[in-house]
Amino acid sequence: MKKILFSLLLILISGNAFADGDADAGKSKAALCAGCHGATGHNPSPNFPNLAGQKAQYIVKQLKAFKSASRVDPTMAPMAANLSEQDMADIAAYFASQSRTGEQSANTTANTAGTSTAVPVVAVAKFVADPVAGKALYEMGDESRSLGACIGCHGKDGHSEVLIYPNLAKQHHQYIEKQLHNFKAATRTNFVMNQFAKVLSDNEIKNIGAYLADTKAVANAKMKKIMIPTAMTESAITGKNKAAACASCHGADGNSLVTMYPKLAGQNAHYLIKQLKDFKDGSRKNAIMAGMAAALSEQDRIDIANYFAAQKTTKGNGKSNTLGKKLYFGGNVKRGIPACVACHGVNGKGMAKAGFPSLAGQSVEYLRNQLKLFHIGERANDKNGIMRGVTKKLKDKQADALAQFMSAL
Ligand code: HEC
Ligand code: HEC
Ligand code: HEC
Ligand code: HEC
Questions:
Q1: pLDDT at residue 126, as a whole number
Q2: What is the value of pTM for the model shown?
Q3: 328-357 burial, b for 16+ CB within 10 Å, e for fewer?
């Protein structure tokens, strides 16, 4: 009987353990970190980031980055240098298992009395941070600057749902602001975060900090999307007539009804122009489109592209799903698949100026077929083989899930 109870207990304990790290072993190893991060990963001083309740995978990634100096910090470099992979996994499992709020740990933090250094106040700057403006940027981004909405990766009020994106909720706002400045100056490197931080002004960083410092205070502030009316330029109006030849397959407004013909409505003009050129010179191979594109002059391509780009995309026929979402936002580090979001955007609209196509609302069948064509190298008009590289290691199941997810965006 005792034996049975004992093995039951073992099952219970191991069922609770973390996949990679051992939180119990991590607890003693983390003693080393307590001086700054607090015994439970929670230190009230704004100088030290909260580790309590942070995603384990994220903690490990940062420790590796400090160790390899791809993230530069003079304090953390020597701390991480002596940790083995197992140490990192254990410590991460321990901190991840702690309460994010640190409520229970208020008395356990060591060395904190008197260390909460005052935040330097710049006397000349009269700027008062605006948490509502911060929330607006956080939730909606700013398309005109290709600034993605933070909420797409870091979750509502900073509660991230995707493993590789850090929680920002209950983090010291001073730390968040410091990191945004580090990303902006590229002393901390992460492709996506560097792009976004680059276009943030110092005051906007303060606004975002003020918002994340107390998200509850502005919980009821409703954000309104500012609609930028799509102007029908002269070129687009001329384009409408020229596009009549395309209507039988792509629909009069570019929303094709047959799924094997891609939607062109709302597609980025630069991208459309490039595709029409590629079909014409044969660098993108398709018998039907080669014939259609052959007759178009450069001015025709511009006008038609402007017309379709100014049209609204109708809803896609795909279904959102967790595998697709995970791959789209996080890629797959093991298989070397980059996150699609980096180029195709949080809402799947692509990046117009960079020529990255919009995928949102496109038909599942067309998207799936293009992923296959890139995968087997049949479509090879992507500069530097970007998409052939992206799809090289993509399994059928993953491509299926992605096509569904992107269409539903
Ligand atoms: C002497 C103080 C000190 C000690 C001891 C220390 N840290 Fe840190 N840690 C810092 C500081 C300061 C930062 C912020 C660095 C920055 O601004 O980029 C940091 C950042 C981190 C981060 C990144 C957090 C994030 O949200 O990106 C992790 C993870 C971390 N430390 C883990 C540890 C672990 C594990 C230990 C123990 C092995 C440890 N630290 C010991 C001072 C310390
Ligand atoms: C496409 C996904 C994505 C979007 C959108 C995004 N982030 Fe991030 N963010 C990340 C990733 C990934 C990291 C971790 C980087 C690393 O591993 O060093 C990160 C890290 C951070 C960090 C550092 C957290 C820490 O604990 O050190 C802050 C602060 C941050 N992001 C704020 C923002 C803000 C503010 C926005 C909106 C302006 C934003 N992010 C938009 C993906 C994103
Ligand atoms: C007979 C049917 C048909 C007609 C008419 C037609 N297309 Fe297409 N179009 C297609 C098919 C099929 C594809 C998908 C090709 C592939 O799979 O690579 C396509 C693809 C495209 C693409 C690439 C879209 C993307 O997302 O990459 C563009 C741009 C395009 N067509 C523009 C036009 C324009 C402009 C016209 C009129 C001048 C036109 N098409 C007329 C059938 C047609
Ligand atoms: C580094 C940037 C980058 C990343 C990351 C990326 N793409 Fe792309 N993608 C592009 C570019 C650029 C094109 C257009 C190539 C061309 O000029 O024809 C494209 C085209 C596509 C197309 C064809 C669209 C059409 O209308 O024909 C699909 C589908 C696509 N990407 C899906 C994905 C998926 C799924 C992922 C993630 C697994 C991904 N992309 C990651 C840059 C990227």
A1: 59
A2: 0.53
A3: bbbbeeeeebbbbbebbbbbbbbbbeebbb
- Given this model, what pLDDT does residue 120 score? 37
Per residue in 377-405, pLDDT tens? Answer: 999 999 888 899 999 999 999 999 999 99
Task: Enumerate residue ranges in the chain where pLDDT < 70.
Answer: 1-19, 102-126, 162-163, 223-232
**Ligand 2 center to residue 202 CA distance, Å?**
16
What is the C-alpha radius of gyration for the chain, rounded to an integer number of angstroms? Answer: 25
Which residue has a Cα nearest atom 26 of ligand 2? 166
Q: How far is the CA of 93 from the centre of ligand 2 (A)?
A: 21
Could you tell me the distance, in angstroms and rounded to a whole number, from the CA of residue 332 to the centre of ligand 2? 17
Q: Report yes or no: 355 and 349 within 8 Å, Cβ to Cβ.
A: no
Q: Which domains does the chain have, with CATH numbers?
A: 18-100 (1.10.760.10), 131-218 (1.10.760.10), 234-255+264-308 (1.10.760.10), 322-408 (1.10.760.10)
Sort residue 214 into left (φ over 0), alpha (ψ -120 to 50) or beta.
Answer: beta
pLDDT tens for each residue of 43-53? 877 778 999 99
Whether ligand 4 lies within 6 angstroms of the CB of 342 is answered as yes
Residue 139: what pLDDT?
86
C-beta separation of 319 from 406 below 8 A: no
Q: Which of 58, 75, 87, 115 to mutate to test the pocket of ligand 1 (most atoms within 8 A of CB)?
A: 75
| Distance from the alpha carbon of residue 75 to the mean position of ligand 1, in angstroms | 7
State the closest ligand 4 atom to the C-alpha of 379, by its place in the atom list counted from 1.
Answer: 18
